[in-house]
Amino acid sequence: MKKLITLFAIILYIGFPNNLFSQENDDLNAPLLEKTEEIDSVYTSKTTYRNPAIATLLSLAYPGIGQYYNGQKSKAEAFIAWKLLSDAFVIIAATGDPHYYPRNEFNVGKVTYITMFLASFTSAATCWIVGIVDANRNAKKINNFYGFTNPKEKKTQLSINPDIKIIPQPLSPTTQTYSPSFGLNLSLSF
Asked: Domain residue spans in the chain?
């Protein structure tokens, strides 16, 4: 188990030489002008409208893909690494034989495998849910930051709002009884 964790740490170190959560590409061999253009951020001039529904569906397919769609490559790599690591531990826990190892080596037993499986499965499910919510929220944040609107959204809207009010009106000039009135507020905006 220690060897497996060490192997994952080495793979993460080799596979992601930059900090997973950095917003810049730290390639030291790139010229300075190219280095300034290669910014891994959603706040660049190349940003276009991000559809929250598409980002959500892509993250529903696999965590991290919606973040790639939003232009957040470092965050997408972190989500994909989290999901792959969780899946690896789920597979190890599900296929492990508690009777193969001695009981005192890593304290492996049936309870430990069940606990490991539940923890890994919960981590994988949490990664999936957090990825879906994050992709949707960040697509909306990007659109709000740049002031983008949905290009397919119709500009003409008809809204019907029931407007229920009680307006005091005397029935006769001498009595002080009131009658309720009801209305329907229609508005058409272009």
From this structure: 2-146, 157-189
